[in-house]
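User: I'm preparing a small set of examples for a lab meeting where we compare how different chains pack in three dimensions. I only have the primary sequence for this one, and I'd like the structure in token form so I can line it up with the others. Please keep the answer compact; I'll paste it straight into my notes.
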Amino acid sequence: MHMRLVVQRVESAEVVIVETGKIVGKIGKGLFVLVGIGENDSEKDAEVLADKLSKLRIMSDSNDKMNLSVKDLNAQVLVVSQFTLYADTSGGNRPSFIKAAFPEAAEKLYNRFVEKLKSLQVKVETGSFGDYMKISIELDGPVTIIL
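Assistant: Understood. Below is the structure token output for the 147-residue chain.
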């Protein structure tokens, strides 16, 4: 499995398309998730990671311990595609992204990941695939997990 997720626990998060100023995704308490899709990733990878994310126990319980999932709290998830998670700087200082999936394939798997989360009864908001976005987040913890 090569798909990459950067998961951050947030108090709130919002995504705005720069060109239009339109808010496309906005959540309260929950998880902000950057999704990087590699050239060899499959629908199975997307489904397995969505399932894992839905059960990931990084939300605080009443004793402030990480014991709960977003599903346990009925919290929200904001998912944004992020091809730069596949940056390779081993050849110098300018990143190469040749290991990232082509946009058409990446968008298909990104959409599959979102659909799978929704089928697992997770409340999902999204960014706008391929658009230049501004993202505002208020981290909680901070708690950041890389899957």
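A couple of notes for your slides: The longest helix spans residues 103-119. Strands lie at 4-17, 23-27, 30-36, 59-60, 66-68, 76-81, 123-126, 133-146.

User: Perfect, thanks.
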